[in-house]
Automatic annotation (TrEMBL):
Family listed: Belongs to the UPF0102 family.
CDD domains cross-referenced by the UniProt entry: PoNe_Nuclease
Pfam families on file: UPF0102
Keyword Transcription: no
Superkingdom assignment: Bacteria
Native source organism of the sequence: Chitinophaga parva
Molecular functions per Gene Ontology: endonuclease activity; nucleic acid binding
Cross-referenced InterPro entries: Restrct_endonuc-II-like, tRNA_endonuc-like_dom_sf, UPF0102_YraN-like
Keywords: Endonuclease, Hydrolase, Nuclease
Protein name according to UniProt: UPF0102 protein DCC81_22830
C-alpha cells in the first residue's frame, strides 16, 4: 500500500511503541463503539489512558494535535465512557492524551506527546 494511504496506521504503531517505551501497557487498539473509536487504550500506573493519535505530513499547514477539536473530544469522551462501563472497574483515574506525529518522509518524523491533553 502507498505511503500516503497507510501512514495513519504507521503513526498508530509508532505511538504505541513510544508509549510502551515510557512504561505504558497497551490494552486495546482501535476500540470502537459504532463508527467512533479510540486509537489506543493503555494503562500508565494508576491511570487508564485514552490516547488519540494524529498523523500529518510535514507539508500540511496545521499541526496534527489541532485536529482534536471540541467535537472530536466529545466523541472520544463518549467512547471512553462506554469502555469504562464495560471494562474499567478497577481503574481509579482516567486521562486523555494526544500523540501527534508529523512525517517528514517515510522514515523521519517528529513525535509530540501531550499527556492529560483534555
Amino acid at each position: 500500500m502507498a505511503f500516503h494511504l497507510d501512514f495513519g496506521k504507521k503513526g498508530e504503531e509508532i505511538a504505541a511503541a513510544f508509549l510502551e517505551g515510557k512504561g505504558y501497557r497497551i490494552l486495546h487498539r482501535n476500540w470502537k463503539v459504532g463508527a467512533r473509536e479510540i486509537d489506543l487504550i493503555a494503562r500508565d500506573g494508576e491511570y487508564l489512558v485514552f490516547a488519540e493519535v494524529k498523523t500529518r505530513q510535514a507539508n500540511t499547514p496545521i499541526y496534527p494535535e489541532t485536529a482534536v477539536d471540541a467535537v472530536k473530544r466529545r466523541h472520544i469522551t463518549s467512547v471512553a465512557e462506554r469502555f469504562m462501563e464495560q471494562y474499567a472497574a478497577p481503574f481509579f483515574d482516567i486521562r486523555f492524551d494526544i500523540v501527534a506525529i508529523t512525517f517528514q518522509n517515510e522514515t523521519d518524523y517528529e513525535l509530540l506527546h501531550f499527556d492529560d491533553a483534555f
